[in-house]
Amino acid sequence: MRQSWTDDRLDDLSHRMDERFDHVEAEMNQRFERVEGEMKAGFERVDSEMKAGFERVDGEINGLRAELKETAAELRAEIKAQGQELRAEISSVDTNLRREIAGVEARLRAQASEHRAEVREQLDRAHKDMRQIHEDVRQMNTAILGLHQAMTRIAWSAAITLLAGVIGVLLTNL
Questions:
Q1: Handedness of CA 129, 135, 138, 139 (dihedral sign)
Q2: Is residue 93, in this structure, part of any structural domain at all?
Q3: For 141-171, what is each residue's pLDDT tens digit?
Q4: Are 28 and 159 in contact (CB under 8 A)?
Q5: CA distance readout (Å), 114 to 10, 21, 79, 119
Q6: Roughly how many angstroms between the first and final C-alpha of the chain, as a whole number?
Q7: Measured between alpha carbons, how far is 148 from 39 in angstroms, rounded to an integer?
Q8: Helix (H, G, I), strand (E, B), or coil: what is residue 15?
Q9: DSSP letters of 56-79?
Q10: CA distances from 24 to 104, 152, 160, 173 (A)
């Protein structure tokens, strides 16, 4: 004998469906929170790695600056000392010392130019490395965003499929 659907039975069915949907929704929320936590931890790790990398590069640049300042101070001191010595000797040996001074000056300029070129080269490499790190982080962020979007679509698809299955079972049993 077929039973009729009374208001009590309909209310009971509605209550059970609400409980099941609440359960599914809670499970989806837990999964989303876990994924968000993993993504947040990943971003924090990337941020800390970037900060450490930038601090290392800054340290290297500061070391180069200090080295350059020290070298410049030494060069200035050396030039000043040689200038005083040369002035004293120039007064007694004019022509020969002028040639020697020109030679010393040329060597010092060449050394300074070499140092400048080396420092520029090192700074250019460091700048290039920093640009590459920035690009790598940008690409990683794009990939993570794409992954998050794909996971969201999958979760919604699963929820819709589950809902369709439940409705199908309910309609079949009616």
A1: negative
A2: yes
A3: 999 999 899 999 999 999 899 899 999 998 8
A4: yes
A5: 90, 74, 17, 9
A6: 14
A7: 8
A8: helix
A9: HHHHHHHHHHHHHHHHHHHHHHHH
A10: 84, 15, 11, 21
Residue 151 lies in a domain: yes
- In the numeric block, which tokens belong to residue 5? 């659907």
Burial 137-166, CB ≥16 within 10 A → b, else e: beeeeeeeeeeeeeeeeeeeeeeeeeeeee
Q: Could you tell me if 110 and 75 are in contact, meaning their C-beta atoms sit under 8 angstroms apart? A: no
Q: How far apart are CA 82 and CA 95, in angstroms?
A: 17
pTM, two decimal places: 0.32
Q: What's the gap between Cα 37 and its chain centre?
A: 19
For 114-150, what is each residue's pLDDT tens digit?
A: 888 888 988 888 888 889 989 988 999 999 999 899 9
Considering the domain boundaries, does residue 4 fall inside one? no
Count of residues making up the chain: 174
Q: If DSSP states are collapsed to H, E and C, what string results for 110-143? A: HHHHHHHHHHHHHHHHHHHHHHHHHHHHHHHHHH
Domain that holds residue 135: 51-173
Residue recorded with tokens 């120039």 = 90
169 to 3, 163, 173: CA distances (angstroms): 18, 10, 6
Number of domains in the chain: 1
Domain assignment of residue 156, yes or no: yes
